[in-house]
Amino acid sequence: MRGWTPYVATFAAFLSRAADFLRMATVSGARLCVVGSHAGVSIGPDGPSQMGLEDLAFFRALWRSTVLYPCDANQTAHLTAAMADLSGVSYLRTTRGETPVLYGPAESFPVGGSKVLRSSPGDRLTIVAAGVTVHEALLAADRLADLGVAVRVIDLYSVKPVDVATLQQAAADTGRVLTVEDHWPQGGLGDAVFDAFTRVTCVPRLAKLGVLAMPGSASPVEQRQHAGIDSTAIVEAAHELLLDS
Amino acid sequence: MAATTLDVEQLTELGRQLRVDAVRAAAAAGSGHPTSSMSAADLMAVLLGRHLRYDFAETQNPGNDHLIFSKGHASPLLYAMYVAAGAVSDDELLTYRRAGSRLEGHPTPQLPWVDVATGSLGQGLPIGVGLAISGRHLERRDFRVWVLCGDSELAEGSMWEAFEHAGHAGLGNLVAIVDVNRLGQRGPTRHGWDTQAYARRIGSFGWHTIEIDGHDIDQIDRAYAEAIGTSRPTAILARTRKGSGVAAVEDREGQHGKPVPDAEAAIAELGGRRSMRVEVTAPNGEPERLRPDTGSLRLPEYEQGDEVAPGPRSAKPSRRSARPAPMSWLWTARSGIPLAAGTSRRCDRRDSSSATSPNSRWSRRRSDCRCGDGRRTWRRSLRS
């Protein structure tokens, strides 16, 4: 309705049922703020019927859409408010489980930006994550640091538009980019990052971690392990990427 | 001429004009859905001439009725109505479906009188329900929402979700006009002209239903008057003939989604071109819009290191945080009003009691929802 900003929220999985309405909303040029909760395998024991694993791909594909994926409660609050000022369909993907608060309440999160959480001149690889995988990426970075491998970690909370400058800088600095997402490997965070390296002369060595197999019921920790997106999988993938040079 | 003075003869003529113009538009385009337009021409003639309240000069008038063509493929009829209302020129009508024309194959808000894009069947009525809820509970206006539905479209599950919802919410400001022309794209519909079958089903959801002959001007007029006077949502189930008025296509299969075979002969059969203009009645009352109160926004705050679910379930404040942090402010809705209808919590003025009591917060906002410059205030507070 004119003068109002509609917010709609349901499980990320069940927004797939609204796909046609959302598609038509873009034809209408409607401004609509959509929140998909309980995203990914990280919901745990409820099983695959409840898991949104295609939502990033769908919302990224919508015409002139915005896709946001916060990793903690303060970031979620800021981005939820920021959506009210966006045009078109905007999508915010949230995580079900209790998640560590990484950022202070005064931090700012511009749409189209990212947060570099770990960085040093000796970084040999960049891990790009968003949402729940940010926490896995930080765990992996700690373990890699213990092994003497410095890595950069980017929280790519704005999946569309994507922070091309920061990604390209990280690629130039480290030469290797590893993405990790709680989503099928197609159309999500990894592809958003890969798209940032089109039309560039120097493409980094790229690898993508996404959900590997159809999940069942399990704890969130077991789910991420089974999906191949937990800190152990990240450390292994990082080693492969570093060896393969 | 004043709209309310149109008599039956004039409305009949208007119905023929709408048919002729739908035939001409599709003929000029070489494609389109004239037969699906012709079946609903009399229904729309009476609506435009007698019952629609719409200010074509002021499309943003908040008192305007909303007309949604849920059967968006009947766009030639909609555009013919705009010609009759003087909003679209005859020259522009003949640009239908051409590159660069606003008159697209299916209506979009590129046209200022179109609220929402249609053409994906099953969506117009659900959106009409949202508009009607918005009129009742957000804008608090007495506009009416008219939705022209196809009968084939009633095979879509989303239509029945909409019927159920509107019935439950008692949306007396919503009228579904069902053009029961019995023929779909591939042949006869499930219920054909059995309007009782539809009436039984829709009525069971709490709607008022009226079954009429959709080509009888008097019956149509009485049905609209009855709908306006009813406190429940009304479905008008109108038996019509697809391609009505042109024998070569009337009530015939295989004529969906194509121009009539001989446009000139069809126009002659319909009595030739007309150029009636209808002065559509504008809504009464002042155009002032009720604005949501967009007072200052204070975001919830969480302490670093705490474990908090970031999603809509995290209504609890941080355990160690002194400040209340009700994430639920974004997702709580007044009971009975679903979020899909569109509720913004931007206008939230919270205090410690309202933080835990969405209903009381809503009540207060409803009473002092008059803030004009709140949006700027809100932006400032967000930035700081």
What can you see in these coordinates?
The complex is a heterodimer of chains A (245) and B (384). Chain A has 245 residues and is α/β, with parallel strands linked by helices. Chain A folds into 2 domains: 7-93, Rossmann fold, CATH 3.40.50.970; 115-243, 3-Layer(aba) Sandwich (Rossmann fold), CATH 3.40.50. Helix content of chain A is 33%, strand content 20%. Chain A contains 8 helices and 11 strands. A 5-stranded mixed sheet of chain A has the order 1-2-4-3-9, sandwiched between helices. In chain A, strands 6-8-7-10-11 form a 5-stranded mixed sheet, with helices on both faces. The relative contact order of chain A is 0.16. The mean pLDDT of chain A is 96. Chain B is of the alpha/beta class and 384 residues long. Chain B has 2 domains: 3-269, Thiamin diphosphate (ThDP)-binding fold, Pyr/PP domains (Rossmann fold), CATH 3.40.50; 291-384, no CATH class. Chain B has helices spanning 8-29, 34-38, 41-51, 75-84, 90-93, 124-138, 157-169, 195-203, 217-228, 263-269, 358-367, 374-383, and strands at 66-69, 145-150, 174-180, 208-213, 234-239, 307-308. A 5-stranded parallel sheet of chain B has the order 1-2-3-5-4, with helices on both faces. In chain B, helix 9 (217-228) links the parallel strand 4 (208-213) and strand 5 (234-239). Residues 317-384 of chain B have low confidence and may be disordered. Strand 5 of chain A pairs antiparallel with strand 6 of chain B.
